[in-house]
Design goal:
six-stranded antiparallel β-sheet; two-stranded antiparallel sheet
Length: about 180
């Protein structure tokens, strides 16, 4: 009931339109943070499963001029340049995918140099509450040509191994792979 000067003490307080929208935003922001954390978790799980598959989960090598030890299979955030050439801090696409990369190091021995480090661009997303993975084309911001989203980490690991087998089977005298699918660091 409303009195001559406004609501009476018995009337419940009215929520402003702004407060209602702000509450929706807070919920959406919280859920977005949860989604990002879930995607990062799945990408790290992929990294550990790939290292295990390759048998290098505990192996490291020491950089030649630094005291740092590096793993043979490493996680790389924000490896892709934005439209202006700068490294993007935002790793999430407008469609909700997490772009990331795995760096694989190949060498003639832990203490032998030079080493070759391949950058394998990947992405993960949630589809109906389940993670999906794919080899990623950072320029097109889409799955790498010839590859689709897959529903399991073993399936994308098989895709990674297929690309590595293909790239590493090419004789340098025959020319580089066309198109190249892995970046070298």
């Amino acid at each position: 009931m409303t009195g001559p000067t406004g609501p009476t003490p018995q009337d419940p307080p009215r929520t402003s339109r702004y407060e209602a929208l702000a509450e929706r935003w807070r919920l959406q922001s919280h859920r977005t943070d949860e989604l990002h954390e879930t995607l990062r978790t799945h990408s790290y799980l992929l990294l550990t499963e790939l290292a295990t598959e390759l048998g290098v989960e505990a192996r490291t090598w020491k950089e030649q001029r630094n005291p740092f030890h590096r793993r043979y299979v490493e996680y790389r955030l924000s490896p892709f340049a934005g439209s202006e050439g700068e490294t993007r801090i935002d790793r999430y696409t407008a469609r909700g995918e997490l772009e990331f990369a795995i760096v694989l190091t190949f060498d003639h021995g832990e203490d032998r140099f030079p080493k070759t480090r391949f950058l394998v661009p990947l992405a993960t997303r949630m589809y109906r509450q389940h993670p999906q993975f794919c080899l990623w084309d950072p320029v097109a911001a889409a799955p790498l040509e010839g590859f689709l989203w897959v529903a399991t980490r073993p399936a994308v690991i098989q895709d990674i191994l297929t690309v590595l087998d293909r790239e590493l089977a090419i004789d340098p005298f025959e020319g580089p792979p066309t198109p190249p699918r892995l970046g070298c660091l």
